[in-house]
Amino acid sequence: MELRMPSACLSLFITLLLSISLSSQAIAADNSPQSLRYVSDFLVINLKNRIERPYTVVDHIKSNAPLTVLGERGKYIHVRTADDKVGWVAKQYTTTKLPKSLIIKNLEEEISQLKQSQPPASQIVEEKIQELQLELNRAQEEIIRLSKSQATAVPSQSISPEEHQRIVAQVQILKKQLARSKRESSDEKITQESSSKGNYSNIYWFIAGVGTLLIGFLLGKIPEKRRQKRVFY
């Protein structure tokens, strides 16, 4: 009898300790910091007012709905929905990972924002064509100046008629090149709005090359014209 009493007391003491420990864990779970979980894909789960029967279904929660975790008890978690409804749901039907449909939606929104932050292709084409048009305008002004100088100049005996005619012919060729470049710029402005970026790159460099040839040709003729003016006058 003396041996049985200490054993019984010890068993009772251990049982009390376990009960206190489990109760503490349940209370701590209910007061745990809030976290966010989501209803798993392709599910509709019940939000219950309590775990034990009888319980009342507070709401039906669909897939991907965010749930703010208020506490946890065993296989259930205490949650708050987006519209502030509070209740219990089975933990196995929720996940901490962002649902696939929400990931896709977020990616689509990011792509849309990137498209809005960058100018459309038509705007880029317009800006490039305007830049080329300025170069062509400068070349045109130089051609007009040279043409007027040619019209008022009187060839002297130092310049042969053949040389004079050659210079005049070169100026005429330059005018034709300018007109063709302007037509090409206008045509490319229309077609490039529906063409790919690679195709636009080829056309851009083609027009840029024509503009470079024009400017280079004019720069080469300016010193020659100055020499002619000294001879003519």
From TrEMBL:
It comes from the Bacteria. One of its GO terms (cellular component) is membrane. Residues 55-94 form the SH3b domain. Its main location: membrane. The chain crosses the membrane at residues 203-220. Keywords: Coiled coil, Membrane, Signal, Transmembrane, Transmembrane helix. Residues 1-28 form the signal peptide. It is a single-pass membrane protein. Residues 122-184 form a coiled coil. This is SH3b domain-containing protein. It comes from Desulfotalea psychrophila (strain LSv54 / DSM 12343).
